[in-house]
Design goal:
Layout lengths: L12 H6 L14 E7 L5 E7 L1 H4 L4 E6 L31 E2 L5 E7 L2 H8 L3 E6 L35 H7 L2 E9 L11 E9 L5 E7 L4 H12 L6 E4 L15 H13 L3 E4 L14 E9 L5 E12 L11 H6 L5 E9 L13 H19 L3 H7 L4 E2 L5 E2 L5 H12 L12 E2 L2 E13 L5 E7 L5 E5 L8 H12 L7 E5 L15 H26 L13 E4 L2 E4 L6 E3 H7 L5 E7 L3 H4 L5 E13 L4 E12 L6 H20 L5 E2 L4 E2 L17 E6 L18 H4 L1 H13 L10 H4 L1
Parallel strand pairs: 1-11, 9-10, 13-14, 20-21, 27-30
Antiparallel strand pairs: 1-5, 2-4, 2-6, 3-5, 7-12, 8-9, 8-11, 12-13, 15-16, 17-18, 18-26, 19-20, 19-25, 22-23, 23-24, 26-27, 28-29
Helix pairs in contact: 5-6, 8-17, 11-12, 15-17
The structure holds dioxothiomolybdenum(VI) ion.
Length: 748
């Protein structure tokens, strides 16, 4: 292999840094109109009066849509759920006078310019009949209940039934710890804000309107399906294009309300419409939910864990049962005979939470891995040793299945060595550097390694280039680059002769980008289709007059340097471009679906693992925590591109620092509203907060997960970091802070 495993530079890098790459709200067409959303100001109640007259009087305003005058759509009759919808009834913008959460869109002003729309939106008068609301999880923990089942359960399994008698085992354990954790909500804040440009293409086939939609999404096909279903359009009326996405982190897994509003307006006005949301409005759909967790661990004096309890309650909305996998990970990491894992949700007057990078995983991992650290101290055992002592060789939560691969031991070994862990003084508060305390902490991480079915097309073009496409997304992860590498290697072509395209519903169907499954999923589809195209090219060559491959079988040839060659005699060769001539001068194309054999994979538990080692400095006068250095050792199967892979893990580690120390959506419960809805008050790290981050990819061979042996990297880099940081803060200060984020008021 020439390219797989090499640090190939991003093939889309040039377009991105020169501004050639266009995002959803940057596609311009003549006659474009602009929609501006009016956001509601109460958390619960009814709109009693809405007056658009002053807005409509502004020159340039075309229409003001409200629940009173919005057109009827198919969606208002059917309960259509988008592909990432939890069980329940999705929020339908402008459906009626009911207010379900603060910031709910209550009107859309459409005007000839953005500025006019924005100004006119400020003139729309809305009056409400306010009702009492509940937005505090901690005040409503007694409302916690089991979530309803739904499609989401496929990728988000419920906790396994309790096994053994955890309470009894805990009472009998000579050493035990109990921890309680509260995590505040977080909001996705990708650089690119949500926006949709709907191009009204006029009436086309049989007088039906056609729309070309540029949408910010992690999956063009899911946006297309959504628009089709809720407006009653057929596939040939809606094309969704999304070639570049300026960050997602899960916020683009569901079609957001600006898409609905933009299409509604374009259909009604027969005009092209763009609706963009403001940074403030980005805090009005979906967030990582607030959670409350309790962990209890019991162990014998030698460090064998004999009892494990992990309970989590997450917040959801009143209209959907959003769930995440929070507690199952504890069972996977530690195979304890007496274990109880529980997960419940509490509905509140908020928008439904939404998957955010390592949803549930980073939450639950922080709880179990800080409890493990406390247990290690009680046992006077090294935290790594305690984990090795209780290392799980199989996953009982899915019925005692072995792991398809698990090089976590190697993560501990290599990570500890790189970090210098053996020099750790186990005593807390023992190390000072000038006037600051220094602490070291570590934690284990775990995440899913799924591979979904997907389609891709490969074309050998008339000029001898390879063009591969699939309707997937690249939210900054490096999909363009790694798919180009896989295609180039599979058909033995120079990488400059290969182009990979994505983000267009005219391309073969693919799942949205998420769950760390894209490299494995689309990678498998690309490998499959290029292999199939190779077979087609072989047949063309074999059937040609006087073919040197006349006698050969397909498995006797290989593709390299833009040629097909006989393996046993490489001088017998044919350039791929000649096969275009053999095809009558036409391009040669193939479309394939890749499906990983479920009989092979379902007997195994498939996961990535990590070990994070962190050093912090804590200034007790100021209450500040600085992560001075961190090492993440990652076991994630084959690494396709160490450059983009490292970027993925570094990004996750930065988010881990953010999660542990800074990020928190602050709710003012009097108004039921998130108050710090801007990047000045919603704190995320800046360059000055980030110091020495080191990434190790341990070797891990996995022939089970998929033919490429790829497990995915989008989320695992984040998972272990908050716990490792919290453990380091304890080691520095001797103070256990179990809530996140660890802000200075908690340190002091
Ligand atoms: Mo990810 S939270 O599945 O985009």
């Amino acid at each position: 292999m020439t390219y797989i495993g090499q640090p190939v530079k991003r093939v889309d890098g040039y377009d991105k840094v020169t501004g050639k790459a266009k995002y959803a709200a940057e596609f311009n067409v003549p006659g474009l109109t602009y929609g501006y959303v009016v956001s509601g100001t109460i958390a619960k109640g009814k709109i009693t009066r809405i007056d658009s007259s002053r807005a409509l009087a502004v020159p340039g305003v075309i229409q003001v849509f409200t629940h009173e005058n919005r057109p009827h759509t198919a969606w208002f009759d059917i309960n259509y759920k988008d592909l990432d919808a939890p069980p329940g009834s999705p929020f339908r913008p402008l459906h009626d006078a009911q207010i379900k959460y603060s910031g709910q869109p209550v009107a859309l002003v459409v005007a000839e310019t953005f500025e006019v729309a924005r100004y006119a939106a400020s003139l729309v008068v809305v009056e409400y009949n306010e009702e009492a609301h509940e937005t505090s999880l901690e005040a409503n923990l007694d409302e916690a209940r089991d979530p309803k089942s739904g499609m989401a359960d496929l990728l988000k399994p419920k906790p396994p039934k309790p096994r053994g008698h955890a309470d009894k085992a805990l009472a009998a354990a000579p050493v035990s710890v109990q921890t309680h954790h509260v995590h505040g909500p977080q909001h996705h804040n990708p650089m690119e804000m949500f926006g949709t440009t709907v191009v009204y293409d006029g009436e086309q086939k049989k007088g039906k309107p056609h729309f070309t939609i540029y949408d910010k999404t992690q999956g063009a096909p899911s946006s297309q399906l959504y628009v089709k279903q809720i407006f009653g359009f057929s596939s040939d009326q809606v094309r969704v294009i999304s070639p570049y996405v300026g960050g997602g982190f899960g916020s683009g897994l569901r079609p957001q309300y600006q898409l609905f509003l933009a299409v509604m307006a374009a259909k009604e006005l027969k005009r092209s419409v763009r609706v963009t949301l403001t940074r403030q409005q980005m805090f009005t759909f979906g967030h990582r939910p607030e959670t409350v967790q309790d962990v209890a661990l019991g162990a014998s004096a030698d460090g064998t864990i004999t009892a494990l309890k992990h309970r989590a309650v997450g917040a959801t909305s009143q209209f959907e049962d959003y769930t995440e996998v929070v507690v199952n990970w504890s069972g996977m990491l530690y195979d304890v005979p007496d274990t109880t894992l529980e997960y419940q949700i509490t509905p509140l007057d908020l928008y439904s939470p939404l998957d955010m990078r390592a949803p549930g995983g980073v939450t639950g991992d922080h709880a179990i891995e800080t409890a493990m650290d406390a247990l290690a101290y009680e046992l006077k055992m090294d935290p790594v040793e305690l984990r090795l002592k209780n290392y799980s060789e199989k996953d009982w939560t899915v019925g005692d299945k072995p792991y398809s691969s698990k090089e976590l031991r190697e993560c501990f070994r290599q990570g500890a060595e790189r970090f210098g862990w053996e020099n750790r003084n186990p005593e807390p508060r023992a190390t000072k550097r000038g006037n600051v305390l220094v602490g070291w902490g570590m934690a284990t991480g775990i995440w899913d390694a799924n591979t979904l079915p997907a389609r891709a097309e490969a074309v050998l073009t008339v000029n001898g280039k390879l063009r591969v496409s699939s309707a997937t997304a690249d939210i900054g992860t490096g999909t363009y680059t790694i798919m180009t590498q896989i295609a180039a290697d599979t058909l033995g072509m120079p990488i400059d002769d290969v182009i990979f395209k994505l983000g267009d519903t005219d391309m073969p169907l693919a799942p949205f980008q998420g769950g760390s499954f894209t490299a494995a999923t689309i990678g498998s589809a690309v490998k499959q289709v290029c292999t199939d195209l190779g077979k087609k090219l072989f047949k063309l060559a074999q059937k040609s007059k006087g073919s040197p491959f006349y006698d050969a079988d397909y498995d006797e040839v290989r593709f390299a340097d833009g040629h097909m060659r006989l393996k046993k005699d490489p001088s017998v060769t044919m350039p791929l471009i000649d096969m275009v001539a053999l095809n009558g001068g036409r391009s040669v194309s193939e479309t394939s679906t890749s499906i990983v054999n479920p009989l092979k994979t379902s007997n195994y538990s498939r996961h990535t693992h990590s070990a994070a080692f962190v050093e912090v400095e804590v200034d007790e006068d100021l209450g500040t925590v600085t992560v001075t250095r961190a090492v993440s050792a990652i076991a994630a199967g084959r690494i396709l591109n160490p450059r983009t892979a490292r970027s993925q893990i570094i990004g996750g580690m930065v988010w881990g620092i953010s999660s542990a120390l800074q990020e928190d959506s602050k709710m003012d419960h009097r108004y039921g509203r998130f108050m710090n809805h801007n990047l000045a008050e919603y704190h995320v790290p800046v360059n000055a907060d980030i110091h020495d981050l080191d990434v190790i990819f341990v070797e891990e061979h996995d022939e089970i997960v998929n033919p490429l042996g790829v497990k995915g990297l989008g989320e695992i880099g984040l998972v272990a970091m908050p716990a490792a940081i919290a453990n380091a803060v304890w080691h520095a200060t001797g103070k256990r802070i179990y809530d996140l984020p660890i802000t200075l008021d908690r340190v002091l």
